[in-house]
Model the fold of this input.
Amino acid sequence: MVQISLPKNSEVQKGKYFEDKTGSKNLRKVNIYRWDPSTGGSPRIDTYEVDMDNCPSKVLDILNKIKNEIDPTLAYRRSCAHGVCGSCAMNMGGKNGLACTTSHAEIDGDIDIYPLPHLKVKKDLIGDLDGLYKQYQSIEPWLKNNSTKQTTEIYQSKEDRAKLDGAYECIMCACCSTSCPSYWWNGDKYLGPAVLLQAYRWIIDSRDEERKERLKKVADELKLYRCHTILNCTNACPKGLNPAKAIAEIKKMLATANV
Amino acid sequence: MENRPLSPHIQIYKWHISSLVSISHRITGIINFFAITVICIWFALMLFGETNYQIIKFFLETFLGKFILIGITWSFSFQMLSEIRHMIMDLGYGFELQTTKITGLLVIFGSIIMTILIYLFGRGII
Done:
């Protein structure tokens, strides 16, 4: 259901202010969402003054700098720092993206950093993505081939392989799904752009033999048709993919094919 | 565990042209639903005599009446253009980020231009 306001326990309070201690002239204010499960209470926004003269170009560099030099209690996911693993997905300057590939120069004014929207927060910038992973599992994201006798390689033409471009590159960072208002309101049933893009990836794979079953499974008022082409997903994708188009293609297949 | 807060969503998420057009499409849809109902009732009332016609005419000539009429004209124009945009998208076209921006702007400015044209046309100026 549409729920514009946040529940009582999620209302954000003003938090601590960490003044700069380096004496730098080139400072930027960074506002970060904080919530600690061990103390509980309401989430708060802590503000840090960060010396930008000694900070590399990405938002992740700011977070690392804060954690290393100012406040070691800050929690956030990160791993590869090269836009490959998808761990550091978060909301920066009002837009979802990967902290390791988003330049802080792109953000005007103070830098606001929140966890991915509309998730149960585990700690600080870490949201709970279990629901999304369960949905991912539900579309059975693996090759299904019924011929048990075939022991040789399953061939795929160059043209058929090209159909997977723009779908297989997804790193499941959840930037798109958590940017989608439909997913905010109906995330328990609507599969969301990330999972639907993967559903599409297996539907169009020429080697997969359960195309019809896959289509049938996804053809559901809530699972698929909650997409209203708002296009927050395509705008958010840090890999430049187009989940909205993939969803439209699935809808088109259902409208034209005899499933 | 149960007391985990929900991270902020619509409060913090940045608007862009496509999301604005999408939400406006819904809002104008609701407005049009009621507008059509009211227009139908007006037409039905006219069947019951001239006094009803006079009352409606008097109301429509007030500032509020004119505002509502122009508002409805815009809301219809917007809904129509936006629906065309969505139909093209349903055919699988126009999903590139740049294209969505352009078509979104076309809908916004097109609806305003269409409203002005309908107004001028209705006044007999063109």
Q: What stands out?
A: The domain at 19-122 of chain B is CATH 1.20.1300.10 (3 helical TM bundles of succinate and fumarate reductases).
